[in-house]
Amino acid sequence: MRSSIEESVLSRIRPTPEEKEHISGVADQLIAVASGIGRAEPLIVGSVARGTFIRGDRDLDLFLLFEPDLPREELEREGLALARTIAESLRAPYHEKYAEHPYVNANLDGLDVDLVPCYRVESAEAIRSAVDRTPFHTRYIEERIEPYVDDVLLLKQFAKAGGVYGSDQMTEGFSGYLCELLILHYGGFTELLAAAVEWKPRTLIDPGEHRIKDFGEPLVVVDPVDPGRNVSASVSLDRMYEFVELARGYHENPSDLFFFPRPDEVFSHAELEAVIQAKGTSLIAITFSTPPFIPEVIVPQLRRSLDSVCALLERNGFFVNYADCEMNEDRSMLLFELMNTETPRVRRHIGPPLWNQSNADRFIAKYCGYDPGIFAGPFIEDGRYIVEISRKFTNVEDLLRSADVLDVGLGKHVRQSMSGHWEVHSGVACWSPAFAPFISRFLVRKSPLMRILGNGKSRE
């Protein structure tokens, strides 16, 4: 029995008959053109094929299934050529994208269409590329999901509103396929939330009861078409427990805000200045051109670069309270909240213990002579040699503008982009219209439930 809130939500998120008809018509066009060319078997996959898409979704996936004896290089070449031909035949603007192998993204009658080559394999265990599983996912869900379509729609909207929907590298959340599997496993939206409030790390769900290995992720949902794959591998511990928190909050106090939250506040330039002054910390940003690759490639490199720059800051005496990164289409940002932007010229450099004579002798040889950059030492403290020496940088902006930044463990494409040019901004100069939402979330961090509770009561 659904609540009045859930029925109201469903009335707003179910696709309209006109929308279904339009999407179905575009899908039929794609199938007809691809079948007419005849070089691969066309198949519509994803939420559109399964009927689990939310009103307003404009994504459509056409997979082009090639015979498995085709060499990988030829699959990429022939698949891309076929995808281009289909888009051109329908006069659809398109561009090429690159994931594990290239595919075409086109715009057709207002829909965002991916034309993806893959292999037609006998089972998901025989895949030759990651996308080869997708047709099996579609068939598995299509056979079972009809009684639970509304439950899937509620779960997707609930997860989207809570900020935990999406298996991309930036979100680290719940994919559409994972949402469908969870609904099937627990038997509905209400039943899933009731179970989720008790989830513990390493929760295991095995719909096919055929797991062949152990998994180390916080949430484990074994793929029913591939026993060696965890469908929820992308779900981080934080996203998992944000979902648990949302489930607990909705169970205790149901509200339409769990599906349609009020927009988060976005700081103006002046408001940002007031927040920074109130906190008493310092905001420092590095920005550079976003490398021309898909987010799945760049986001992990942004995170790796963020960690490396944090370590550089800490080594140089600048203490990081919080750091995060954002990838926009044209520019990317590494953002740091620092406890200090200046540090004393002197720093302690701890040497080897004296019982390690060979290393201790080398240390003494390096630092025993006169050097204006040595303020004290070498002296002995807790059995080790120590010197007080001069820092290279005492101002954080000088450090972040220096070539030292390029010497840390940046991601490959991030380093290539920054080698051309990067900018350092501090305080309110970090603000720009494009990054204002990110900076606002960065400074006023709240869990999804706390955002809902802090943004007012239900509109019902």
Describe, in plain words, how this protein is organized in 3D:
The protein has 460 residues and is an alpha+beta fold. 40% of the residues lie in helices and 21% in strands. The chain folds into 4 domains: 13-142, Beta Polymerase, domain 2, CATH 3.30.460; 146-258, CCA tRNA nucleotidyltransferase, domain 2 (Poly(a)-polymerase, middle domain, Orthogonal Bundle); 269-342 and 394-443, Poly(A) polymerase predicted RNA binding domain (Alpha-Beta Plaits), CATH 3.30.70; 346-390, Alpha-Beta Plaits. It has helices spanning 4-13, 17-37, 47-50, 72-89, 134-142, 149-161, 176-186, 189-196, 237-252, 269-279, 295-315, 357-367, 396-400, 412-420, 436-443, 448-454; strands spanning 41-45, 59-66, 94-98, 102-108, 111-119, 203-205, 219-223, 226-230, 282-289, 320-327, 331-338, 346-353, 374-381, 384-390, 423-426. It has a 5-stranded mixed beta sheet, sandwiched between helices. A hairpin with a 2-residue loop joins strand 13 (374-381) and strand 14 (384-390).
